Amino acid sequence: MSAPLTPQTAAACAKGDALPSLTVQVTRADLVRYAGASGDLNPIHWSDRVAAVAGLPGVIAHGMLSMALAGRVLTAWTGDPAAIRSYGTRFTRPVVVPDDDAGATVELSGTVAEVREEGGERIAVVDLKAAFEGKTVLGRARAEVVLPG
C-alpha cells in the first residue's frame, strides 16, 4: 500500500491505495443533535432504560450517523462532497455510546478497490470501514467517487 491519499493526490489514485483514516468520538450530545436534525427520536438512542428493554447493551448511535461518519473519510479525501456518486452499506453491529464525556470511539478508514473510466470520468470505488471496539459496525460499505480531472 502507498501513503494515504489527499485531495491533491486523489486524481492519481490506484487500486489498493489507503484513504486518510479518521477517529471520531461520538457522545450522547452528538446523538441528541443527530436525532433533532434527522427526526429519528427513537429512545434507544438516548434512554438507557428503553435500550435495555429492547435488549440492547446500552444507548446506541443511529446507524445512519455511523454511515455519515464513514462518509467523512470520502469528503475529507476528495475535498468535494459532490464527488460522491453513490454510497451504500449494511449495519452489522451497534455503536454503544456511554453516558459520559468521552463517548464512543469510532475508527474510520477506506481503501480504493477499483479505478475505472466511465463516460469520460475516472471513478474510484472505495471500500469503507467503520469499527467500534475493534469490531466492524458497517458491512459492505462501498462508495463510488468521481475523481478530479
TrEMBL record:
GO terms for cellular component: fatty acid synthase complex. InterPro entries: Fatty_acid_synthase (IPR003965), HotDog_dom_sf (IPR029069), MaoC-like_dom (IPR002539). GO terms for molecular function: fatty acid synthase activity. Residues 21-117 form the MaoC-like domain. Coiled coil: none annotated. One of its GO terms (biological process) is fatty acid biosynthetic process. Belongs to the enoyl-CoA hydratase/isomerase family. This is Acyl dehydratase. It comes from Pseudonocardia alni. The lineage of its organism: Bacteria, Bacillati, Actinomycetota, Actinomycetes, Pseudonocardiales.
